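hey can u check if this looks right to u? its 480 residues, i copy pasted from the old doc so theres a chance i mangled smth
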Amino acid sequence: MTTQTLQRDRRLLAWRKTKSTLFGSLTFSTILISFALLVALFVYILVSARPMMAMRATAQAGLVLSTMVVQWDARNIPYVIVTDFIPDSAAARAGIEEFDVITRVGLKPVSRSAEVWEVVARWPHDAVPVSWISRDRTRIFGELMPQADPSTGAMRIVIDYLPEESLGWQAGLRPGDQIVRVENIPVTGTRQAWEALIVAAHQKPRPEPFIVEIERAGELRTVALEVEQTAQIPITRSWWHAIWDFLTSYDSNSPEKAGLASAIAGSFYLVGLTALFALPLAVGAALYLEEYASKNWLTDLIQLLIANLAGVPSVIYGIIGLEILARSLKMDRVLIAGALTMTLLVLPMMIIAAREALRTIPDSIRHAAYAVGATRWQVVRAHVLPYALPGILTGLIIALSRAMGEAALLILLGAFQYLTFIPGLWSYFTVIPIQIFTWIGEAKDGFANIAAAAIIVLLVILLAMNGLAIFLRIKFQRRW
């Protein structure tokens, strides 16, 4: 061996070591970065789901909220109102009614529902001070009427009727008074007088009387109007109660009351029916191809088609299910049609997994059974299939995990997003991924938070299914 050959071999060996180290470092770095990104994503989802506990507790206390907007000086000023009156709730007993405006929670001015939940989540006590302004304008200013000033012709806002039990009467307002300003905000309309209270409340650091400037008998006067009412609202915060309520409630237009009951039931029904349809077909096809079929061009073509079908995008199966099952066969977009379509999606993957499980069985077991006079079916039924069952079940559960998290296929099948009942075989249905997709698209405060909570529920279910697959594989694994 020449010197040049030895040097070349050394350089080649050094390059191989360098390449192995380089690619090993890149692989490790990629895995580490991917894991860090997954952890960061999961933490972000947990943080986004955190307000759910405060949302459910606030709603339980009778504060089902919504964010509205008032247009003021070419600006959109948000404010919070109570959108649902719950009799016998803590808020109702304190005097809060439907459509009242929540101005402060814990002495902090709030302008969005999310700010209310944030304060409730961090408040150190079970009783939270809540301030509000009544939506009933007659309880504040009475009935206002626009009138033309007889001397100038300009429009002015005059109190036409004022009940004696109203806040305005108690503050000193009387019928015939003209409302000029509220906290230095000019009043030029009947609705604007009430909206000025909302704008002024956001500017005040604490609940204080509103200074209302009026004109009476040609004289300007000021009145201290106690508009904001404050009460201690007991709010019980419990993670277990919030989670249970979220899992057992139906969908709602209010994020504080919306839940996953219909979606969870629909997902498990869909996965159960898919397993019922797909498992016999997948095992039968795998047994035929591995134990009975002759090795020729036809079986090779079938294997190639199965491998190709496993890689087809799910939306294609959705189109097939929509056209053939829902429209041609007139099954409509019901749960059974969704399960049959999902069976088409997972069947190729289950066939491949079942065939791989059958291939792990040593031929010596088959030959020993044949040697004692067993038929082919007896060999398959009593030896091959029981030994391959752990691998088959593992493939089944992994395929069903994909079905559990599938959304594109079901969007085409029109899985309904708003259900207030548990779906049946021939009824409309929804599933967890579709519910998440719907909530994320909602602009209302709170829906993004419950969507994050639903993502955690879906992840827990998927991890449980994959954990079950690992347990079955380890529990029934045979070593030869």
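The chain has 16 helices and twelve strands.
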